[in-house]
Amino acid sequence: MSDPRELYPHQTIALDLLRQSLASGKKRPLVQAPTGFGKTVLCGQIIRRAIAKGNRVCMLVPAISLVDQTVESLYRDGVTDVGVIQADHQMTDWSKPVQVASIQTIARRGYPDVQLVLVDEAHRVFQAQKKWMTDPAWAKVPFVGLSATPWTKGLGKIYDDLIIATTTQDLIDQHFLSPFRVFAPSHPDLSGVKITAGDYNEVQLGDTMNKAALVADVVETWLRLGDGRPTLCFAVDRAHAKHLQERFELSDIPTGYIDCFTEVSDRNIVRDKFKRGEYKVVVNVGTLTTGVDWDVRCIILARPTQSEILFVQMVGRGLRNAIGKTDCILLDHADNHTRLGYVTDIGHDHLDMGEKTTAKSKNKEALPKECPKCTFLRPPRVSICPACGHKPEPHSAVAEEDGKLVEITRGKGKNKNGSISETHIRIGGEQIPLPNFYQMLRYHAQRKGWSSKQPACAYKEVTGKWPPFVWNDRCMIEESPAMSSWLKSRAIRYAKSTGSKKQQAANHG
Fold it and tell me: 401 and 389: one domain?
């Protein structure tokens, strides 16, 4: 094994807390490791210490498809003395001190001879895994769980300690994760979708989300706000995902597709094309929620959920840092944020014991908010910090009308009396001063042969106000790439709406 990488503070804290937990007699501790935590680095340290004491280790993963990926991750972190428990695998070698296996293989082939088990994605609990962990013969062998979302119902009956060394918000604040911005361009009607096993009935949900208008809106919104950003799209089912892929392709957007039936070799092809930029978007059905470290800068949430775990896992795929990445855009077509809140606000300080809760206790209580100026936790619904008097200013205003969504932000320029004198419009990650936005509309109108009134009408349609008349005396500006994409999506939406009206007229004729 090569020399270990130096630990970051949050990894050191997690390792110290884990040692304290085991020293206190705990045998089933679970480490909360959010996206970007550096889980393999922590695992490498745990494995090295176990081997130094003469112990053998099993790294348990929830699916066979994750075995090779886990081996690659361990190799990258310098843990190379590894064998794989899997039929006909080229790395099968029971003599190795570190064994990587899926729970499905363990269920068929029996338990390995090890003195420590690391359970990856520990929020996913299988009956075979539960049987192993509760077997009296294994009571003295530590099972250390790792998960970004350790909130599964009844998880506290299997694990006996929850270790929280950091949170997603902490990692964003410390620049280990990317900040994010959220847009909510669609609001699907889910009133007719039943709840099954704590989440939306997938069959009914698929029928609801696969409607042509909703699918078209996903593509149009991406052209306005996400174009140029490597994007993952989460769909409900295979039919929905295929429909989304088809609509992206019809708009000349190269799009990959992955579901649970996609072979590992084909997944790797999609992954490589995405990394090379040959695919701008990859649509998937519940398969890219874990174990994905791609450079993703936009997430499309076309899959409504009531599961905090699924929601956080989906969003987490876009929060990893990358060279040149300033933030991640979340296009929420599922109302997940209005239903569950921001991922940075979701968290639990204890493991769920599976106890029944009353309808009243299920309602979330308002939480205190940290003052950004003095870090005082101010009471819920109190806007002015009692400690320092700081009152947060709104960061942005969002203009939304008939499915159109742009982000309008306050400018920094001030006039003589100190009020804001100019605002900006954010399109596809580009912040454009409103005067420039209007001049780009005028330039586009001249190039396309619009009437002289159309730029002003388009400006008012987006901002809710007419542009100042004096702006007509300024020089026109050629539209930027982000502006071009937005204008293209606007044209598509207009063509779709006029086509629909013509069809309605024909039907009534």
Answer: no
Question: How far is it, in rounded angstroms, from Cα 113 to Cα 482?
Answer: 57
Q: 235: domain CATH number?
A: 3.40.50.300
The residue behind tokens 């709104």 is: 394
In whole angstroms, give the CA distance from residue 80 to residue 2: 8
- One domain, residues 382 and 424: no
CA atoms within 13 A on the CB side of 348: 21
Cβ burial of 381 (10 Å; 0-12, 13-18, 19+) is exposed
In this structure, the answer to whether residues 309 and 388 fall within a common structural domain is: no
* pLDDT tens digits along 54-90: 999 999 998 887 888 889 888 888 888 999 998 888 9
- The CA-based diameter of the chain, rounded to the nearest angstrom, is 84
Strand pairing class (423-427; 404-410): antiparallel
pLDDT digits (tens, 9 = 90+) for 312-362: 999 999 999 999 999 999 999 998 888 888 898 888 989 999 876 543 333
Tokens for 499, please give them. 């086509």
Q: Please answer whether residues 300 and 276 qualify as being in contact, where contact means their C-beta atoms are separated by less than 8 angstroms.
A: no
Are 147 and 187 contained in the same domain? no
CB of 240 closer than 8 Å to CB of 206: yes
The pLDDT mean for the chain works out to 82
302 vs 205: CA distance, rounded Å: 11
What length is written for the chain? 509
- The answer, yes or no, to whether residue 405 has pLDDT greater than 50, is no
Kindly state whether residues 132 and 204 are assigned to the same domain.
Answer: no
Domain shared by 220 and 106, yes or no: no
Q: Is the pLDDT of residue 365 over 50?
A: no
**Would you call 167 helix, strand, or coil by DSSP?**
coil
According to DSSP, the residues that pair with 398 across neighbouring strands are 407
CA angle 20, 67, 93 (to 5 degrees): 90
Tokens of 183: 């847009």
What's the one-letter identity of residue 64? I
| Confidence bin at 497 (pLDDT 50/70/90) | low
Contacts of 459 (CB under 8 A, 6+ apart): 437, 438, 441, 465, 466, 467
Asked if residue 194 and residue 108 are part of one domain, the reply reads no
**What are 167's two structure tokens?**
């949170």
Name the residue among 65, 90, 103 with its Cα closest to residue 262.
65
